[in-house]
Amino acid sequence: VKTKNHLEFFDDPGQLKIYLPKKLLECLPKCSSLPKERHRWNTNEEIAAYLITFEKHDEWLTTSPKTRPQNGSMILYNRKKVKYRKDGYCWKKRKDGKTTREDHMKLKVQGVEILVWQCLYGCYVHSSIIPTFHRRCYWLLQNPDIVLVHYLNVPAVDDSGKPCGPVLCSINTDRKEWAKWSKEELIGQLKPM
Q1: Which positions ≥6 away from 118 have C-beta within 8 Å?
Q2: 188 pLDDT band (50/70/90 cuts)?
Q3: Which of 23, 29, 170, 177 has the fewest CB within 10 Å, making it most exposed?
């Protein structure tokens, strides 16, 4: 115990010590397994629980990159060992047309940021083919090497509130990239989504 309000969390000697507020640890769900898939976005509390608990579960870490993970897939990587962003999907590009457009965000747990140096961080990308398909990556700023990656196709909703099928993106800059693909290449992108 660091103080009566903070707990020291680490597993192996020599590993990075993570200091977490006792209040935070009490609000996190207990998790004994990492789901292989989830067809809804995780809550910030669930994300924090997975990223903190992984140290007790080496089997949760995936040691090689997955190519086009299925819709709903949740994967935990060590970014120093796996190039997880090379997943085979076509993501929206920045205006320069060279790099992937990523949205970055600090997330709060129970309405409170986990101090500046212990913040939960998110990075979101959007498919350039189906605008409802996304990849979200999460990590603790205090331990950025461990990344939780979640792929999800969030169904679009029409004006009456009913789910509707995905529509191919019609933005010309993105379309140029995938419009030249063969039917098989395009199906290879769409099927796992």
Answers
A1: 18, 19, 20, 140, 141, 142
A2: confident
A3: 170
Of 117, 110, 79, 85, which Cα lies nearest the Cα of 100?
85
In a 13 Å sphere around the CA of 69, the CA atoms on its Cβ side amount to 25
Assign 186 to helix, strand or coil: helix
- pLDDT single digits (tens) 117-157: 457 899 999 998 888 999 999 998 878 999 999 999 987 66
- Token pair recorded at residue 97: 């047309």
What distance in Å separates the CA atoms of residue 192 and residue 184, rounded to the nearest whole number?
13
Nearest to 114 by CA among 44, 57, 54, 17: 44
Q: What is the pTM of this model?
A: 0.78
How far apart are the C-alpha atoms of 61 and 55, rounded to whole Å?
A: 10
Q: Which two tokens stand for residue 74?
A: 């949740």
Decide the pairing of beta strands 61-62 and 74-78.
Answer: parallel
- Distance between CA atoms of 66 and 33, rounded to whole angstroms? 20
